[in-house]
Batch of 3 targets.
Target 1
Amino acid sequence: MTDAAPKKEQRRKFQAIRGTRDLLPPDTALWNQVEETARSVFASFGFGEIRPPAFESTDLFARAVGGETDIVSKEMYTFAPSPESAPDESADDTISLRPEATASICRAYIEHNMQQLPQPVKLYCMGPMFRRERPQKGRYRQFYQIDAEVLETVRPDAAKDTAKELAKDAVVDAEVIEMVMTIFDRLKLPSVRLEINSIGHAADNCRRRYVEKLRAELLKVKDKLGADSQRRIETSPLRVLDSKLEHEQPIIATLPKIADHLCDECKAQYAAVKRELELRGVFYKENWRLVRGLDYYMRTTFEITAQGLGSQNAVCGGGRYDGLVELLGGPPTKGIGFAIGEDRLILSLQEAGISALATRHSPLVYIAWMCANAYAAAVHAAKDLRAAGIRVELPPVEQKLGKALERADKLGAQYALILGDNEVAEGKWTLKTLADGTQQKLTEPKLLDFLKKL
Ligand code: AMP
């Protein structure tokens, strides 16, 4: 009996935790292609990369994302301080795995005094985020985001010319949206749809007035709403507009619209964003119900959807969040950014049949070495070809020619480099084109020249 338990435990088959998954080749080639494309577009818009840590003080997310949001109240992976932790300053801090990146980037902006850098500061980051959501297609507990943020500390004299500042903000908003649309365009993501909205300006009270009015209207129809929406009337009435419940749709359609309640400044800024998008040839659709889930957004919000994703079809969400840096203890700073959901982006590309680089890992050349004599030459040839950036497969054991060619074919190689006694004696390799079986004999420099040109 006593022996049985550990044996059973030893036989346990481990699996990835629910809501997490392994990303495997050849899919990872597409992931890399997406990331390379994003990096190249970011560079062309003057963005630099930041790599914040994957966990931070829980308080940072509570303050930045909002304690009332689902993300903070239910979905974070949080660790209490351990009694054994080293007696350092942050030992009593409860920490959480990051559910999103904006809070960390704003924290880093303050911590590294980036307000002293030439403004605005344009940053991007990529990596895993963690939310304890109910897993389904396109929704994971560890998922990946490609995130970009523009931060600009407000100059003391900025208040003197509000119109100029608003016009500048509109240009920044439009350029950020143009940038993310450029990434999707380069990747040939089909049926991309951009929706925009303005949710007003909290400090200017137009949002507060609207939210009060919305709450009053929602209270009148409270009994007809589902439990989630009923709860949100108190906690965050704007989120009711997000509801996907079918029976709530006709009720929501009659609610007051924020566009009718924007103050003059917000109205002017929203109009300018639309003009700037048109100037850049970026197509958009207005959606007055687009409010975004996170508390810190203001004025411009946007969401981008793509095909093939079912109900989880948002591949990117973003918006303006002036004031967040200040809320975290920094100087008055404007901000706008977005997060692309990389998992969903990849799913959508794959659904559209795009897996462009799926064959990139297959070798170009398979080295078929066939006698002990040829082994050293094979090792050196592999080294030289790889140094020239050529993908090479070198089998660890000697193989008969037929077997070697069969394996080369299975791996998807285009050429077999045949090395036997004859080739070693002659100082020339036999290069066989696997598609048509033709062969040529080449010295190593000629071989390199030939393969590099492919
Ligand atoms: P958010 O940070 O909530 O604004 O989300 C930005 C984007 O990240 C969304 O549009 C999704 O594409 C993606 N995303 C958010 N949560 C998840 C999740 N649990 N699994 C996969 N992608 C997600």
Target 2
Amino acid sequence: MAGILSAIKLREAGFDDFTVYEKADRPGGTWRENRYPGIACDVPSHLYSYSFAPNPDWSHRFAPGSEIQAYFEGVAQRYGVTPFIRFGSEVSRGTFRGGRWQLETKDGRRDEVDAVIAATGVLHHPNVPPIEGLDRFAGALFHSARWDHAVRLDGRRVGIVGTGSTAVQMVSALVDRVARLSLFQRTAQWIMPQENPAYSDSERAAFRRRPELLRSAYADLGTLFHAFSTGLVDADSPQMKAIEHACRTNLEENVRDPVLREKLRPSYRAACKRLVMSPDFYQAIQKPNAEVVTEGIERVEARGVRTRDGRLHELDVLVLATGFRVDRFVRPMQVVGRDGLDLDAVWAQRPSAYLSITVPGFPNFFLLNGPNGPVGNFSLIEVAELQLGYAMALLELLRSGRCREISPSAEATARFEAERSEAARRTIWASGCRSWYLDDRGVPMSWPWTFDRFREEMSAPRLEAFELR
Ligand code: NAP
């Protein structure tokens, strides 16, 4: 998403000597890699689109993953940037030497470039939990982002570990296909009810005929989501109260069995973890062939999952919907900045960056969707567009000859990070739950202010925060 975006915007700005390195043989990032049953985006599709490339043909309010994948491929083609992508080319190392970045790829190529944009994503490297015996399972076992489509599911006994957005979508998609579905829940989730209606032919035709409808859909949804962001950063806001009410009502009204209802009731506030959206998870999990297993996992054995109460849950397929290692960012790529400074060492404790885009000691290096940026129930496309605008303003300083190297000062970065982590402690994400938003100290790794403030900050770099050489 962010690589295609960068290519389009660089070209528009008159840069024509650039390469997009892509380790796989297709573009699409998270939508190429996540192809589990039920995958969709829970940001409305008319907002989860590039601002400059609205799509009249989205089939549903929340389009399925395959449509989103086709959208990205289509945009790359339509904007003529596919030829700029070098497929099958994984960057293993970038070294800043003599004022330029030297890039090495796994297939042995060496390139020298003036600047690097790291558009490598966040939810990227699967988190495989250290559960004993995973290698002893005799059935099929895979992570949700490494789905094995050769494995038959119909009529089989399927186990899912995890209860995040991924698992919830899978449960709804699989329950009517499988013989038994066992959901291994370590922590219950609040579920925000969210219908997903299809667009009719006439609605799509209207979007096609009248582009202003698409523009206003994008703007209206943006306003709605930004108001939501204001709620998240103020745990006592009216928006938060409304979200909590909607989630609680969903649970109370839609789960009949009081024992199951209590199993599914979280012990923390709604939206403390990333809010899970679903129109039908509760209906799906109440089907007679579904079971929520709340007993902890002892180990995996050849025939299934043994829980701590000694029970063996026999399974043919076990899916790890256990999320991602979200502190990796560009890594495992080795990034070596000025004077041999290694990004892995700089980030040894935890990743950070000035405004989540630039890192002291790493000149002409720009991260999109980097550490501590806006995450949550947002469109990361919108986030990347704003960040890229900011990075391109810095690139312009290089192109115009105003400087040859630009990186943030250590002081500005430390000040930003101190203010950010202080504010993050007051957000709903820090209200008492475990989630992928939290760093090693339990501080949310995200933009802790409103989206409007983010947009304002991205509108132009404050050069006093940077060292220009
Ligand atoms: P996730 O939200 O990080 O959830 C991981 C789940 O695995 C949690 O329920 C976690 O339990 C569980 N888990 C991890 N290690 C475990 C262990 N050792 N034993 C038992 N359970 C374990 O991951 P995700 O569902 O893949 O979602 C990641 C993010 O991707 C989402 O938050 C969202 O931003 C994005 N996403 C979006 C959509 C969408 O648009 N609809 C769909 C999928 C993903 P605990 O809660 O106890 O830690």
Target 3
Amino acid sequence: MRVPIIAGNWKMNKTVSEAVELVRVLRESTADVEKVEMVVCPPFVSLMAVKDALAGSKIGLGAQNVFWEEKGAFTGEIAAGMLKDLVTYVIIGHSERRQYFGETDATVNKRVNAALKAGLTPIVCVGETLAQREAGETAAVVSHQVLNGLAGLTAEQAKSIVLAYEPVWAIGTGRASTGDDANAVVAQNIRVPLSKLFGEAVAQGIRVQYGGSVTAANAAEFMSRPEIDGALVGGASLKAADFTGIIEATAQVK
Ligand code: PGA
């Protein structure tokens, strides 16, 4: 009942022309895919060109961040209302933003509210660091991020949110989690808090991705788990063949 969603987080990679070239290949290589929602999230400066290059394709477009104010003197920031003309999705609270740009659960919450208000689908990232995992804090950290990041939303709003469980130690390291471990964290530390916030029925309908060193080779390991509804892909989303392989593995397993 939860449609799998594979999103590519390009991070700070690709010039505008490289971005257009990548999606030109991707739209061909994924043309026959069914029943998997596909999303690419290029840097802001490429959104317009990529939107044009994707016109009429099945691939959706997302941004990598959004500011919570509507407009005004916020040099360098981008408002949800500006993104809404270009994209359908927006990644919020990625661990790199938490680590390098001072993102907290409180700012995640403001961004999620702004995104929802503009009609965007937030992809909200949560996940523990290596130190937190080794200290046995995974459950507490992840459930707090969910409870605080999504506090105050209505159940109706929550229905359109996507979450991404991304253990920080697995991001960009080539050291992915295991299907069993990720599935358990999603079940216990994401879906349980979601049901506390929004009720069991809504929690069961919310899609939760796994992210962290997902490749075409290991995608099936995660996608075959019942609690995992897709992937947020960094490095492997930068090559059309790798990203297509992940999408195809998802279509086969789900
Ligand atoms: P990775 O990144 O696939 O390169 O590990 C995932 C992410 O940061 O979303």
